[in-house]
Specification:
Length: about 240
């Protein structure tokens, strides 16, 4: 018998097994960008490990770029889009609002593809999630308060309905960049119109009509772009007074 037919048994660290499990949940879409992991005490109980072992696993995941840790805050899943790509864009958006228009163009290209996939692939659970987003917006509208956060959640729910995790992570990064600037261009008399546009988009998804869903999404995004153009006009002094 040859000497090299046997291999040593690999003794894998427990923390490495936790890392693999979390990575697997992110890879299959069970954990989405922005999702908060359970509190450490709960994770210790679920994994049946000590705090140092759990901390080692979370630190490894953080170093790998899968999660974001912060003191006194829950650990959250990060976008798979590298921060060294989005961070310079954050600075450009801060210095020049016109860059937002280019980001809106990129968003439109991605979302028109997303909406077709969502209309084709959305499950009953996906549709229920979208309708929950609409209900949250309806409550904010009734209370006459901003629903910028719910708006972003709605579009991310559409990305999730594509069942393409890359699209979900891309959209999360784009909305993280846009949420401050786009939110500024909503006026009270326009939020109801935007809400109704969202409702019509969901109806098209429920009907599984890809062409109609795309047309309604394009109409919605064109309207948002017009609002942003108006905001740019005011900030640069080129708008009508």
């Amino acid at each position: 018998m040859e000497d090299n037919v046997f291999r040593a048994i690999e003794q894998r660290k427990v923390s490495a097994q936790i890392v693999d499990q979390v990575k697997s949940l992110i890879a299959n879409g069970r954990l989405k960008p922005g999702d908060a992991l359970p509190p450490e005490r709960e994770l210790m109980k679920v994994f049946n490990v000590s705090r140092p072992t759990l901390r080692e696993a979370l630190n490894t995941l953080s170093t790998m770029g899968f999660v974001q840790m912060a003191q006194r805050r829950r650990t959250r899943v990060k976008s798979l889009v590298p921060s060294n790509i989005t961070e310079p864009l954050h600075h450009l958006l801060k210095d020049d609002i016109k860059v937002s228009l280019e980001l809106i163009e990129s968003r439109t290209i991605i979302e028109t593809g997303n909406i077709r996939l969502a209309a084709k692939r959305a499950t009953l659970e996906d549709i229920e999630r979208l309708e929950q987003c609409l209900e949250k917006m309806r409550k904010k509208l009734k209370d006459n308060t901003s629903f910028n956060e719910e708006d972003a959640g709605f579009h991310l729910a559409i990305a999730e309905a594509t069942h393409n995790k890359i699209q979900t992570h891309l959209m999360f990064s784009i909305y993280d960049l846009l949420k401050e600037k786009v939110g500024l261009c909503y006026y009270d008399d326009e939020t109801e119109y935007i809400f109704n546009q969202h409702c019509s988009i969901v109806e098209a998804i429920k009907a599984k009509d890809e062409d109609l869903a795309q047309a309604r999404m394009e109409e919605h995004l064109s309207y948002i772009e017009s609002l942003l153009n108006r905001l740019i006009g005011k900030e640069t002094g080129s708008g009508k007074k």
